[in-house]
């Protein structure tokens, strides 16, 4: 039986470890909240699994726990920041709030960020803005590393480059978080560690052959993650990956053409306010019609009905907040070990 933990206790545990490691308290609280949110939604490769590497990054100086981003450019609706390797969850939360306020007046607000710390699970930011009746789009890349080849190539050029979006829908939220590759670096590493394979080809070997073996990614020379669409339609995922590069590294002014200073994500945070477009009521009516049409669409015989993007994650979040968070078996021992090192007790299971 899988152990479960109170989400409030996991947040307090993570925040304490971050502050002990030198992160300012306000930043530590946000980072802990975002990581636990990832686990609540079921994105357990991008939740508290990132706590140990975040602590290591603080210790090495690869992540900065103190300070403010540098404002590089500004208009009433757009800001560009140098994130100065500050914690990514704190930067994204702050950027989302600024863009949300700008959108209330102008219909949209956007923050472009270079040199951000790792931001974790993109879906973890969506509900907060969607519940304000606004639309959040979040795009991320990392110019310091690469794992996906361009369509027709065999060498790594860009990262999985996720796109996330969320909006309010009849008292709930529609949320999507989609990488422009079939799988992610984190899931590939987990599969390798477990000694398991993917259920279908999700990678290319260094020679360009499709494979389900995660070890191909760690060979020398390394294999690559297949773009979204796989062997049949990967040109679409690769094209979308290049779009993310343009809207993150391109707009923020720092990317793959520049010297590699170590990890530093490039981000675009965009908030739209339907009230300043066709009106909030019209937006809600249209999106509710679509939601009803999705739910009413007949499934194949014996299959469950269609669901909205994010519906399963939000149901999982509600269940885990009530019954406790079921951490992936690999995560709790790592967290407990970091707690022991810092003299912080890991929460007892329920």
Give an overview in words.
The protein has 350 residues and is α+β, with helices and mostly antiparallel strands. It has a domain of 244 residues: 2-Layer Sandwich (Ribosomal Protein S8, Chain: A, domain 1). Helices cover 39% and strands 17% of the residues. The protein is built from ten helices and twelve strands. The protein has a seven-stranded mixed β-sheet with strand order 2-3-4-11-5-6-7. Strands 9-8-10 form a three-stranded antiparallel β-sheet, with no helix packed on it. A hairpin with a 2-residue loop joins strand 6 and strand 7. It is globular and about 50 Å long.
In short:
With 350 residues, the protein is of the alpha+beta class.
Name its key features.
350 residues, alpha+beta, Ribosomal Protein S8, Chain: A, domain 1
What's the layout of helices and strands?
Elements: E1 4-5, H1 7-20, H2 25-40, H3 51-60, E2 70-74, E3 78-82, H4 88-106, E4 108-116, H5 126-130, E5 135-141, E6 163-169, E7 172-178, H6 185-194, E8 203-204, E9 210-211, E10 224-225, H7 230-252, E11 265-272, H8 280-295, H9 311-323, E12 325-326, H10 331-342
Parallel strand pairs: 3-4
Antiparallel strand pairs: 1-12, 2-3, 4-11, 5-6, 5-11, 6-7, 8-9, 8-10
């Amino acid at each position: 039986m899988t152990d479960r933990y109170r989400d409030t206790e996991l947040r307090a545990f993570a925040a304490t470890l971050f502050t002990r490691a030198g992160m300012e308290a306000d930043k530590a609280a946000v980072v802990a909240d975002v990581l636990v949110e990832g686990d609540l939604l079921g994105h357990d490769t991008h939740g508290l699994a990132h706590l140990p590497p975040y602590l290591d990054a603080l210790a090495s100086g690869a992540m900065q726990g103190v300070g403010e981003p540098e404002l590089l450019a500004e208009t009433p609706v757009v800001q560009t920041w140098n994130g100065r390797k500050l914690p990514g969850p704190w930067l994204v939360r702050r950027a989302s709030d600024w863009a949300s306020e700008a959108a209330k007046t102008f219909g949209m607000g956007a923050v472009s960020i270079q040199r951000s710390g790792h931001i974790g699970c993109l879906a973890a930011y969506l509900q907060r803005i969607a519940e304000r009746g606004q639309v959040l789009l979040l795009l991320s890349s990392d110019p310091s590393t690469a794992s996906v080849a361009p369509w027709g190539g065999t060498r790594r050029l860009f990262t999985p480059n996720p796109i996330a979006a969320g909006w309010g829908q009849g008292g709930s939220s529609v949320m999507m978080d989609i990488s422009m590759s079939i799988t992610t670096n984190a899931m590939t590493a987990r599969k390798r560690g477990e000694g398991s394979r993917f259920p279908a080809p999700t990678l290319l070997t260094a020679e360009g052959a499709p494979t389900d073996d995660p070890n191909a990614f760690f060979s020398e020379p390394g294999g690559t993650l297949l773009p979204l669409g796989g062997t049949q339609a990967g040109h679409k995922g690769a094209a979308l990956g290049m779009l993310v590069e343009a809207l993150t590294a391109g707009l923020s002014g720092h990317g793959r053409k520049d010297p590699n200073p170590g990890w530093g994500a490039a981000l675009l945070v965009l908030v739209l306010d339907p009230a300043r477009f066709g009106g909030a009521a019209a937006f809600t009516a249209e999106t509710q019609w679509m939601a009803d049409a999705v739910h009413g669409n007949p499934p194949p015989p014996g299959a469950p009905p269609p669901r909205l993007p994010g519906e399963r994650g939000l149901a999982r979040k509600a269940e885990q907040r009530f019954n406790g968070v079921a951490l992936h078996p690999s995560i709790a021992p790592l967290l407990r070990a970091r707690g022991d090192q810092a003299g912080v007790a890991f929460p007892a299971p329920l």
